[in-house]
Specification:
With 249 residues, the chain is mainly beta. It has 2 domains: 96 residues, Immunoglobulin-like, CATH 2.60.40.3230; 81 residues, Sandwich (Immunoglobulin-like), CATH 2.60.40.3230. Helices cover 12% and strands 47% of the residues. The chain contains 1 helix and 13 strands; from the N terminus they run αβββββββββββββ. The strands form 4 sheets. Strands 3, 4, 6 and 7 form a 4-stranded antiparallel beta sheet that branches. The protein has a 3-stranded antiparallel beta sheet with strand order 1-2-5, with no helix packed on it. The longest helix is centred in the N-terminal third of the chain and has 31 residues. The chain is elongated and about 105 Å long.
Length: 249
């Protein structure tokens, strides 16, 4: 009987040990070899259309994204030795945004010789058109005839970045186009911080003739704030003004 009990005890011990080993092996397999698809596992799985991008992932695959395009770029004299450069950038990636995209602004004279190059970064929110305004560019005694804006690195596009909905009302342009005022409204239930309001003046031919920008540091939800843009001495032959206000992303 003693031998039989000893055998049963050993059998029970080895059975329990084997069961524990099986459970541990299954746990290791599940943890390292059978994970649920994710957007950071270095594999193309789930609904992804690329490795960790596309489908339900926030990262947009490079093959499915569009580079930002510059619709136009111009520079306007703001003082005897300084210019303000402005451009309109188009984002064709619907619902996608990109942070800190590096760009270069080059100002040339009438002989196509480079006067100055200004480098910066641009946050591109999930909207179609993004104005860029860079003031106080010193050119000395030279005259700017052409402006070129290029992006120096492909953006990394992300979906699902929520931004407050801001709109402009009560826009008023003085007769000599020396002063432009408006009210910014935040229609969202979230606060807008570090929003940038840009203003561009156009002539009858639709050519931009002047630009300016103003920072709106904080706009509470469902709140409003007045913005004012000025151009000393006015700008002749202006028939239209466009104000765009975009929050930071």
């Amino acid at each position: 009987m003693a031998l039989k009990w000893s055998f049963r005890r050993q059998f029970l011990y080895y059975s329990v040990s084997a069961l524990v080993m099986v459970v541990l092996a299954l746990a290791v397999y599940q943890a390292f070899f059978n994970n649920a698809p994710s957007c950071s596992d270095g594999k193309r799985n789930g609904t992804e259309t690329g490795v960790d991008c596309g489908g339900s992932c926030s990262l947009v695959c490079a093959a499915e994204s569009h580079s930002p395009s510059v619709l136009w770029a111009r520079a306007f004299r703001s003082s005897p030795q300084t210019y303000t450069a402005a451009a309109y950038v188009q984002n064709l990636n619907q619902g996608a945004s990109a942070r800190a995209v590096p760009y270069s602004l080059q100002l040339f004279d009438d002989k196509n010789l480079l006067i100055v190059e200004v480098e910066g970064t641009l946050d591109i929110p999930p909207v179609n058109t993004i104005p860029v305004v860079v003031p106080n560019i010193n050119v000395g005694v030279r005259v700017v005839a052409r402006t070129l804006m290029t992006f120096t690195r492909e953006p990394v596009w992300q979906k699902g970045v929520a931004i407050p909905t801001l709109r402009i009302q009560n826009q008023k342009l003085s007769q000599d186009a020396a002063l432009l005022s408006a009210t910014v409204y935040n229609d969202s239930n979230i606060e807008a911080r570090d929003a940038v309001a840009t203003a561009v003046l156009f002539d009858q031919a639709g050519v931009a003739r002047a630009a300016s920008k103003s920072l709106v540091p904080r706009l509470v939800r469902k709140g409003s704030q007045d913005v004012v843009f000025t151009w000393g001495g006015g700008v002749p032959d202006i028939i239209r003004a466009e104000i765009t206000v975009l929050p930071s992303i």
